[in-house]
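JOB MANIFEST
job_type = single_chain_structure
chain_count = 1
residues = 574
[input]
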Amino acid sequence: MIRFQKVKFRNFGSFGNNGTEIHLDRHRTTLVSGMNGHGKSFALLDSITFALFGKPFRKINIPQLVNSINEKDCYVEVFFSIGDDNYVVHRGVKPKKFEIYKNEELIDQNAKAKDYQKMLEENILKMNYKSFTQVVILGSSSFVPFMQLSAADRREVIEDVLDIQVFSDMNTVLKTRVSLKKEELKDLENKSELLKSKIELLEKHIASLKEEDENKVTSLLEELETTESTVDSYEKEVTSLLIEQNDLIKKSGNVDKVRSDLSKYENMKKIIQQTHDKNVKKIQDIERMDKCPSCTQSVPEVVKADLITKFETKREELSRGLEDISIQIKEQNEALDELREYSAKSKDVHDQIVKKRSEVESSKKYSTKLRKEVAEIQKKTCETDQTENSTSLKKYKKEMADVKDERTQFKEDALLLGAVGNLLKDTGIKSKIIRHYLPIMNKLINKYLTDMGFFAQFTLDENFNETIKSRHRDQFSYMSFSEGEKMRIDLALLLAWREIARLKNSANTNLLILDEVFDSSLDTVGTDEFLKLMHVLSANTNVFVISHKSDQLVDKFDNQITFVKKGNFSKLTG
């Protein structure tokens, strides 16, 4: 319960620099009197609402709250307690000031005054301006009766009275969270699409590289197969040439022996030719010889003939020997030519063998190179997981999995938030609480109406629309009644909200201020009934009634204070 103790102000409205202090908890009922313009409303209505909510009760601009004579040092202080804690709210204009003290210690101020005010309303007072003016103040000027509030404002007042505004606050927070979740989900969707594109592009790139490697391996293997086939063909040719070479070597035989024999035959032919030539010369010499060269005797023809016959026989033998040896030489030369031809062929075959073997070695080296290239490509393919592209792909896929998990969690959160949202809607928990308290509210309203001599059945529904039925069951609306009857309804509602607040210990306070409610709208009967009603209010209630009818009401109150104006400044007396 908020127990207001006093309000102090200086240079506020028509009040001067001396300072004014009004105690709010000393008397159960206090009559506030004074002529128009003497500061009654400034002192009680505007000062308290300005200190608590930063704006006056009446429609007055903030600069107009500063005393027009002194024009500075305007301040208001409200003292109240909640439980064992004592609070002071200090608010000023020229200079601007807003401070909250708890047990004489300044509560840390936020960077924004708006947040500081929000903390005061939500964490300390537990009510805002609308609920305060519906539960604490009933004025005849700028006061808007509950029944003339919009549906949203009616609900806000009831929620504050029932202390269920927290559900609306939670719903606001929830909506913010849902909005943030939607933004986060949108970011996740965008991230998912981006990762999907990256993965697709990288997979295509990796597939392209893999296909390129596979095509390269296929090409290399085909080339390797061709090379190995060529090697096999060359090796077969080498084998065939080796066989041919061996055959030629066998056919060529011993060339040196043939050459040696040919040399012998040629030497023999030379010797025989020389001997043959000598015999021919001797025959010629014998034919020309007349005398014996030794004895100088004449040589007979018979002797010459015998000698010539002898040498001719030998010459013929030598001629036949020359023919035979020439045949042998010819045969040897022919054999040597054949052997030389075989040897040349053998050399050619050897050269071909060397060349083919060189080509075989070169092809084998090329095959080894091709196998190495194939092995390197296959190794690179096997080690794809270690490449930069594959590492990036794994990273993207992991991020995609994380995003998927987050999206799944978001969807679960969305379901949970949706369920919580349904509970926090006006049709959720609050509706159930309101339905629970509606009968109590209606009962209290009708009780207070009856106590004030207003005999009609007043009922509020869940949307706070009224149904008013007379004894004859005629149905009316709030606007159907006279101003006095409306005032009775407004008073009944105010007292009902206060009682509900007291029961709920939410917007529960000791202070009740009524501004000129007896001066115009209430008739004599209504006034008497309400005065009786005031005295049966809780003993913890301190009622202040502002009225011009002080002479008619003074004996009805425990205390009276009067405001007078001397010169240009208002002053409290009594």
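[summary]
The chain has a mean pLDDT of 83.
The chain is about 60% helix and 15% strand.
exit_status = 0
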